[in-house]
Amino acid sequence: MKNLSIVLSLAAACMVSAATGVAQGNEKPAAARQETLHDTVTEMVKKGFNTFVAALTKTDYLEKVASGTYTVIAPTDVAFRDKPKVELDALLADKEKLTAMIANHLVEGKVSASDLKAGEVKTVGGKTIKAKVVDGKLKIGNATLVKQDVPSTNGVIHGIDAFLDAK
Fold first, then answer.
1. Residue 30 maps to which CATH number?
2. How far apart are CA 8 and CA 38, in angstroms?
3. What does 19-44 look like in DSSP terms, one character per residue?
4. Residue 165, in any domain of the structure
5. Per the domain annotation, does 166 fall within a domain?
6. Number of domains in the chain
7. How many Å separate Cα 47 from the centre of its chain?
């Protein structure tokens, strides 16, 4: 519960800007974006994506995710713990690299796990991620799908066991 409070506090700072008006290019009014953002962040935290959400709040993508329909292919908290501490600390300290990592885990539109099995998707970061079934498990890039089709107010969330190495 403490993690939920911390992450929601981080997200609250970003929600203040969402509440001030419709940003250029956003389709949803500010109040709707704020509610979507809150619901998405809360759902991600409840489902084991605390670290991804904390990373998301350090980039400019938090507002973007609240303003449209997205598929989030997110490393779970376990995937973050499995990453060597030196690498993780360096990533979290470098906003440019962190932003690129987040962009490579976001896909515009709602893409279900069954849709992913069809081949490949393009990330918001412009990279292509290939998906295939191996030994009965869906592999997305170099990662294995461990949570699928977690509903979100404005899309869907898939949990993976590693960071995507999008090409």
1. 2.30.180.10
2. 8
3. TT-PPTT--S-HHHHHHHHHHHHHHH
4. no
5. no
6. 1
7. 12
